[in-house]
Amino acid sequence: MAKPGFYLKNAKATNPTLVFLIYKLHTGKNFKYSTGESIHPDFWDKALQRAKTNLKGNPTQLVRNKEINLQITRYDVKITEILSSLKAANQSPTVELLRAEMDKEFLKDTHPRRVAEEAKKLTMLQWIESWIENVKLTRETPPRPINPRTKQKYRATLKVLKHFANKRRGKLDWGNIDMDFYGDFTE
Questions:
Q1: What are the residues whose beta carbons fall under 8 Å from the beta carbon of 21, sequence distance 6 or more?
Q2: N or C, fewer C-beta in 10 Å, the chain?
Q3: Are residues 96 and 29 in the same domain?
Q4: Same domain (yes/no): 181, 136
Q5: What is the DSSP letter of 137?
Q6: What DSSP letter does each residue of 109-136 carry, written as one string?
């Protein structure tokens, strides 16, 4: 099985440029997928296909490079997982299939307008329930898997919100989260 690689969109750029995941399919086609990360070519190690971490005298860039590498590793792990699953199922990867699976993991359909439209379809409490069930990683650097106990705490908070909505406010939704809600809820 070929190995996925990470390449700069424009290795000769004078400004930060996007980092792409590229995987060569057995059909000869390339699956190309943006990681969403950008880096100046001076801080990119072409041989390692990662951001340089041997920087001296630039602690801010070093921290940023480590974050970029962490994100690239997430993409590397996911594409490898997808390819292994397809191989186990004796199924050949296609550009469309790989893109669909990667989009599921990395939520590529996050254009603000589309997210807002989707949010309008769900009530706030439905959205919170969905988020609790689907959240996988913490917001820490580096991200870690969410502890089941943390999800239990989230569910307890949701239960309190539902109880509050039933007893005091009636319908609790996006439009009525305001300072009045805050005052009533904290009271």
A1: 4, 5, 6, 31, 32, 33, 34, 35, 72, 75, 76, 79
A2: C
A3: yes
A4: yes
A5: B
A6: ---HHHHHHHHHHS-HHHHHHHHHHH--
3-state helix, strand and coil shares in percent for the chain, rounded to the nearest 5: 55, 15, 30
Give bridge partners of residue 32 from the DSSP assignment: 22
pLDDT tens for each residue of 69-123: 999 999 999 999 899 888 888 888 999 989 988 888 887 554 455 555 555 567 7
Within its chain, how far is the Cα of 2 from the centroid?
24
Phi, psi of 125 (to 5 degrees): -65, -35
pLDDT of residue 130: 80
Do 129 and 121 contact (CB within 8 A), yes or no?
no
**Closest Cα to residue 35, out of 47, 52, 23, 48?**
23
pTM of the model: 0.58
What's the domain range around 162?
A: 123-186
How far apart CA 20 and CA 28 sit, in angstroms, is 18
